[in-house]
Amino acid sequence: MESFSEMVPLPLLMTPVESNYRACTIPYRFPSDNPRKATSTELDWIDLFLSSVPSFRQRAESDITVTDAHSRAEKFAQRYTEILEDLKKDPESHGGPPDCILLCRIREQVLRELGFRDIFKKVKDEENAKAILLFEDVVCLNDSIEDEGQRLENLVRGIFAGNIFDLGSAKLAEIFAKDGMSFLASCQNIVPRPWVIDDLDTLKLKWSRKPWKKAVIFVDNSGADIILGILPFARELLRRGTQVVLAANDLPSINDVTYAELLEIIAKLKDENGQLVGVDTSNLLIANSGNDLPVIDLSRVSQELAYLASDADLVILEGMGRGIETNLYAQFKCDSLKIGMVKHPEVAQFLGGRLYDCVFKYNEVLS
Asked: Which residues constitute the domain of residue 47?
């Protein structure tokens, strides 16, 4: 399906949207703050985005699809740095005051204006190819766990392990460039429970006796995240009779998987009978969310996704950008699950947790 140009609110959001929902979890400023002076929180986040500029410049320099990529990458670094410094001096410049959505949007705009469409394409393709080779082994390992609660926890740990592949985090981008990442090793190294937000035991109680009819999952990164984390979880839902809608970005942003890429991945993973390692996929739908950032404002999604999501009884937001930084406190008309790894010290401090801690927030709507 093609995404429609007009964006609409996700119908699963609690109404009225205007008063109940804002796509921003962390309070960057309060009404009493001076509008002409950046708050300490705004300064921390501007510095966080400043720290990622070198890794983005390096990715842009290596983009072989762009003529004169090296000089254009330098222009990106200079222009984006100047904008960030402007926001420090005047938070209302460049459409501010700044939050993570604005800071991401400006970064993408500068890249696109300079001709960069997908500077992470090469690494995404490489990681997708690696993860596809491991998919069946990961699924079979999950299937071999007879206890339903233990299998669910193993699937959840797989989501966290896959979510480590995030090149929007300067520190993780540095580690990845140096050492790469092992999915199975990452599963073993997830921080011990209890996590900073840990509703896994609650979900375990509901898992066997609450079969959801339809789940919408907002997916995050390419590679291990989508292929070894989310897809085994989605396959388990399919096996339990749930229809699953995977909502992916319209346009590239960092190493997030796009709608077009996800269609290719699913096609490669299906066997000749259209199954994912023995599980029928006729109830698996792929939707274009209409989004073009690593964070998401659920008051603006594609009409296609709004239509497909209208009768869902479970919504899942995966990844730090979608599930923590912008929608941790979003309220829905149906059950919801926010799941992601904390990859920025600023987020860890806000939540009162540890760096690389895990968030697993389940909210049940009682009918």
From this structure: 27-113
